[in-house]
Amino acid sequence: MNRVFAEVCGIHAGDGYLRNNGKRGELDISGSVEERGYYDQHVIPLFSKEFNISITGKFFPSRNTYGFVIREKRILERMHAQGFPYGKKSLTVHVPKRVFEKMAYKKSFLRGFFDTDGCLFYQKKTTGKYVALKKQRNYYPQIILSSVSKILIKEVKEMLEDLDFTLFHASYTSKKENENTTHVIHLNGIKNVQNWIDNVGTKNPTKYTRYLIWKKYGFCPPRTTYDDRLKILKGEICPQSYYGPVV
User: Fold this and answer.
1) Is residue 49 a contact partner of residue 4, using CB atoms and an 8 Å limit?
2) What is the pTM of this model?
3) Using one digit for the tens of pLDDT, what is the confidence trace for 78-96?
4) Where are the domains of the chain?
5) Greatest C-alpha distance within the chain
6) Selection from 102, 95, 119, 97 nearest residue 184 by Cα
Protein backbone atom coordinates (compact mmCIF):
# COMPACT_ATOMS: atom_id res chain seq x y z
CA MET A 1 0.00 0.00 0.00
CA ASN A 2 1.07 3.57 -0.69
CA ARG A 3 -0.76 6.89 -1.10
CA VAL A 4 -1.17 6.57 -4.86
CA PHE A 5 -2.46 3.00 -4.63
CA ALA A 6 -4.83 4.00 -1.81
CA GLU A 7 -6.37 6.61 -4.11
CA VAL A 8 -6.54 4.04 -6.92
CA CYS A 9 -8.50 1.79 -4.55
CA GLY A 10 -10.87 4.65 -3.67
CA ILE A 11 -11.47 5.36 -7.37
CA HIS A 12 -12.14 1.68 -8.02
CA ALA A 13 -14.56 1.52 -5.08
CA GLY A 14 -16.51 4.34 -6.71
CA ASP A 15 -16.24 3.83 -10.48
CA GLY A 16 -14.53 0.47 -10.98
CA TYR A 17 -15.46 -3.05 -12.00
CA LEU A 18 -13.37 -6.25 -12.08
CA ARG A 19 -14.27 -9.04 -14.50
CA ASN A 20 -12.81 -12.53 -14.77
CA ASN A 21 -14.56 -15.37 -16.57
CA GLY A 22 -11.61 -17.74 -16.24
CA LYS A 23 -10.34 -17.03 -19.74
CA ARG A 24 -10.31 -13.26 -19.87
CA GLY A 25 -10.28 -10.60 -17.21
CA GLU A 26 -10.36 -6.81 -17.13
CA LEU A 27 -10.38 -3.83 -14.84
CA ASP A 28 -12.95 -1.31 -16.07
CA ILE A 29 -12.92 2.26 -14.71
CA SER A 30 -15.33 4.83 -16.12
CA GLY A 31 -17.48 7.78 -15.11
CA SER A 32 -19.58 10.62 -16.48
CA VAL A 33 -18.56 12.02 -19.87
CA GLU A 34 -18.49 15.45 -18.21
CA GLU A 35 -15.60 14.18 -16.10
CA ARG A 36 -13.34 13.46 -19.07
CA GLY A 37 -10.90 16.13 -17.93
CA TYR A 38 -10.62 14.49 -14.51
CA TYR A 39 -9.90 11.14 -16.17
CA ASP A 40 -7.42 12.44 -18.74
CA GLN A 41 -5.58 14.78 -16.39
CA HIS A 42 -5.60 12.79 -13.16
CA VAL A 43 -7.05 9.26 -13.12
CA ILE A 44 -5.22 7.91 -16.18
CA PRO A 45 -1.82 9.37 -15.14
CA LEU A 46 -2.41 8.05 -11.59
CA PHE A 47 -3.12 4.47 -12.76
CA SER A 48 -0.32 4.66 -15.34
CA LYS A 49 2.17 5.67 -12.65
CA GLU A 50 1.11 3.09 -10.10
CA PHE A 51 0.92 0.15 -12.49
CA ASN A 52 3.69 1.22 -14.91
CA ILE A 53 1.41 0.87 -17.90
CA SER A 54 0.33 3.00 -20.86
CA ILE A 55 -3.41 3.77 -20.73
CA THR A 56 -5.60 5.52 -23.27
CA GLY A 57 -9.01 6.91 -22.36
CA LYS A 58 -12.06 6.03 -24.44
CA PHE A 59 -15.74 6.79 -24.74
CA PHE A 60 -18.15 3.91 -24.01
CA PRO A 61 -21.26 4.74 -26.08
CA SER A 62 -23.38 1.87 -24.74
CA ARG A 63 -23.37 3.41 -21.24
CA ASN A 64 -22.44 6.99 -22.13
CA THR A 65 -19.33 7.02 -19.94
CA TYR A 66 -15.65 7.84 -20.35
CA GLY A 67 -12.77 5.84 -18.92
CA PHE A 68 -10.48 2.94 -19.73
CA VAL A 69 -9.99 -0.82 -19.52
CA ILE A 70 -6.91 -2.70 -18.28
CA ARG A 71 -6.44 -6.40 -19.08
CA GLU A 72 -3.00 -7.17 -17.61
CA LYS A 73 -3.26 -10.16 -15.30
CA ARG A 74 -0.79 -8.83 -12.73
CA ILE A 75 -2.88 -5.70 -12.23
CA LEU A 76 -6.16 -7.58 -11.91
CA GLU A 77 -4.62 -9.92 -9.38
CA ARG A 78 -3.21 -7.01 -7.36
CA MET A 79 -6.64 -5.35 -7.16
CA HIS A 80 -8.34 -8.63 -6.33
CA ALA A 81 -5.79 -9.25 -3.56
CA GLN A 82 -7.02 -6.07 -1.86
CA GLY A 83 -10.42 -7.68 -1.43
CA PHE A 84 -12.13 -6.30 -4.53
CA PRO A 85 -14.35 -9.06 -5.97
CA TYR A 86 -14.71 -10.18 -9.54
CA GLY A 87 -18.17 -9.40 -10.87
CA LYS A 88 -20.76 -7.30 -9.11
CA LYS A 89 -19.27 -5.47 -6.16
CA SER A 90 -22.04 -3.07 -5.18
CA LEU A 91 -23.20 -4.85 -2.03
CA THR A 92 -19.86 -6.24 -0.89
CA VAL A 93 -17.17 -3.67 -1.76
CA HIS A 94 -15.16 -2.50 1.23
CA VAL A 95 -12.05 -0.53 2.12
CA PRO A 96 -8.83 -2.59 1.78
CA LYS A 97 -7.46 -3.43 5.22
CA ARG A 98 -4.07 -1.86 4.64
CA VAL A 99 -5.66 1.55 3.95
CA PHE A 100 -6.26 1.77 7.70
CA GLU A 101 -2.54 1.54 8.46
CA LYS A 102 -1.80 5.25 7.91
CA MET A 103 -3.77 8.47 7.98
CA ALA A 104 -2.29 9.44 4.60
CA TYR A 105 -3.76 6.27 3.05
CA LYS A 106 -7.17 7.04 4.52
CA LYS A 107 -7.14 10.55 3.04
CA SER A 108 -6.11 9.24 -0.37
CA PHE A 109 -8.81 6.56 -0.41
CA LEU A 110 -11.46 9.06 0.65
CA ARG A 111 -10.37 11.50 -2.06
CA GLY A 112 -10.61 8.81 -4.75
CA PHE A 113 -14.00 7.64 -3.52
CA PHE A 114 -15.42 11.17 -3.28
CA ASP A 115 -14.07 12.22 -6.67
CA THR A 116 -15.83 9.31 -8.36
CA ASP A 117 -18.92 8.61 -6.25
CA GLY A 118 -19.37 11.62 -3.99
CA CYS A 119 -21.40 14.79 -4.36
CA LEU A 120 -20.88 18.42 -3.30
CA PHE A 121 -23.82 20.76 -3.53
CA TYR A 122 -25.33 23.83 -1.86
CA GLN A 123 -28.77 24.34 -0.35
CA LYS A 124 -31.05 27.22 0.52
CA LYS A 125 -32.48 27.75 4.00
CA THR A 126 -36.15 28.22 3.19
CA THR A 127 -37.61 27.82 6.66
CA GLY A 128 -36.78 29.69 9.86
CA LYS A 129 -35.49 33.20 10.50
CA TYR A 130 -32.80 33.50 7.82
CA VAL A 131 -31.83 36.56 5.83
CA ALA A 132 -33.18 36.84 2.29
CA LEU A 133 -29.85 35.84 0.70
CA LYS A 134 -29.81 32.53 2.56
CA LYS A 135 -33.42 31.85 1.64
CA GLN A 136 -32.99 32.65 -2.03
CA ARG A 137 -29.43 31.53 -2.81
CA ASN A 138 -27.83 28.09 -2.57
CA TYR A 139 -25.24 28.95 0.06
CA TYR A 140 -25.20 26.06 2.58
CA PRO A 141 -22.61 23.37 1.65
CA GLN A 142 -23.14 19.64 1.93
CA ILE A 143 -21.06 16.64 0.93
CA ILE A 144 -22.83 13.34 0.28
CA LEU A 145 -21.13 9.94 0.22
CA SER A 146 -23.37 6.97 -0.53
CA SER A 147 -23.28 3.29 -1.40
CA VAL A 148 -25.48 0.21 -1.26
CA SER A 149 -22.53 -1.50 0.47
CA LYS A 150 -23.23 -1.22 4.19
CA ILE A 151 -19.70 -2.27 5.15
CA LEU A 152 -18.09 0.33 2.85
CA ILE A 153 -20.07 3.21 4.34
CA LYS A 154 -19.40 1.94 7.87
CA GLU A 155 -15.66 1.95 7.18
CA VAL A 156 -15.78 5.34 5.45
CA LYS A 157 -17.63 6.69 8.51
CA GLU A 158 -14.86 5.42 10.79
CA MET A 159 -12.19 7.11 8.69
CA LEU A 160 -14.09 10.40 8.61
CA GLU A 161 -14.48 10.37 12.39
CA ASP A 162 -10.70 9.84 12.67
CA LEU A 163 -10.33 13.03 10.62
CA ASP A 164 -12.60 15.02 12.98
CA PHE A 165 -15.58 15.34 10.65
CA THR A 166 -19.02 15.85 12.15
CA LEU A 167 -21.39 13.64 10.20
CA PHE A 168 -24.90 12.29 9.92
CA HIS A 169 -25.35 8.68 8.80
CA ALA A 170 -28.64 7.27 7.49
CA SER A 171 -30.03 4.41 5.43
CA TYR A 172 -32.79 4.83 2.87
CA THR A 173 -34.93 1.91 1.72
CA SER A 174 -36.38 2.23 -1.76
CA LYS A 175 -40.08 1.68 -2.32
CA LYS A 176 -39.19 -0.19 -5.51
CA GLU A 177 -38.95 -3.94 -4.97
CA ASN A 178 -35.69 -4.57 -6.82
CA GLU A 179 -33.69 -1.62 -5.48
CA ASN A 180 -31.23 -2.04 -2.62
CA THR A 181 -31.09 0.03 0.54
CA THR A 182 -28.75 3.00 0.13
CA HIS A 183 -26.44 3.95 3.00
CA VAL A 184 -25.56 7.64 3.09
CA ILE A 185 -23.14 9.89 4.95
CA HIS A 186 -23.99 13.61 5.14
CA LEU A 187 -21.22 16.12 5.87
CA ASN A 188 -23.05 19.39 6.39
CA GLY A 189 -21.83 22.92 6.84
CA ILE A 190 -18.85 25.15 6.18
CA LYS A 191 -16.55 23.54 8.75
CA ASN A 192 -16.93 20.07 7.23
CA VAL A 193 -16.44 21.21 3.64
CA GLN A 194 -13.40 23.31 4.52
CA ASN A 195 -11.95 20.37 6.47
CA TRP A 196 -12.42 18.23 3.37
CA ILE A 197 -10.73 20.72 1.03
CA ASP A 198 -7.85 21.32 3.45
CA ASN A 199 -7.16 17.75 4.60
CA VAL A 200 -8.59 15.35 2.01
CA GLY A 201 -8.85 17.45 -1.12
CA THR A 202 -10.29 16.78 -4.55
CA LYS A 203 -8.71 16.26 -7.95
CA ASN A 204 -12.02 16.32 -9.82
CA PRO A 205 -12.56 19.77 -11.40
CA THR A 206 -16.30 19.15 -11.91
CA LYS A 207 -16.62 19.10 -8.12
CA TYR A 208 -13.91 21.62 -7.26
CA THR A 209 -15.47 24.33 -9.46
CA ARG A 210 -18.58 24.22 -7.26
CA TYR A 211 -16.40 24.93 -4.24
CA LEU A 212 -14.54 27.75 -6.02
CA ILE A 213 -17.78 29.49 -7.03
CA TRP A 214 -19.13 29.23 -3.50
CA LYS A 215 -15.85 30.54 -2.08
CA LYS A 216 -15.89 33.52 -4.46
CA TYR A 217 -19.57 34.47 -4.38
CA GLY A 218 -20.91 32.96 -1.15
CA PHE A 219 -23.30 30.68 -3.06
CA CYS A 220 -23.30 28.24 -5.96
CA PRO A 221 -26.27 27.98 -8.36
CA PRO A 222 -27.75 24.49 -8.83
CA ARG A 223 -28.19 22.63 -12.12
CA THR A 224 -25.11 24.13 -13.77
CA THR A 225 -22.85 22.20 -16.11
CA TYR A 226 -19.09 22.08 -15.74
CA ASP A 227 -18.77 24.45 -18.72
CA ASP A 228 -21.24 26.84 -17.05
CA ARG A 229 -19.16 26.87 -13.90
CA LEU A 230 -15.95 27.56 -15.81
CA LYS A 231 -17.65 30.54 -17.46
CA ILE A 232 -18.86 31.80 -14.08
CA LEU A 233 -15.32 31.62 -12.70
CA LYS A 234 -13.99 33.44 -15.79
CA GLY A 235 -16.60 36.18 -15.36
CA GLU A 236 -18.40 35.27 -18.59
CA ILE A 237 -21.63 34.36 -16.74
CA CYS A 238 -22.97 36.15 -13.68
CA PRO A 239 -24.11 33.59 -11.07
CA GLN A 240 -26.91 35.97 -10.08
CA SER A 241 -28.46 35.36 -13.50
CA TYR A 242 -29.68 31.95 -12.30
CA TYR A 243 -31.94 33.73 -9.81
CA GLY A 244 -34.27 36.67 -9.54
CA PRO A 245 -33.40 39.68 -7.36
CA VAL A 246 -32.95 39.21 -3.61
CA VAL A 247 -36.06 40.58 -1.91
Assistant:
1) yes
2) 0.90
3) 999 998 888 877 777 889 9
4) 3-102, 115-240
5) 66
6) 119
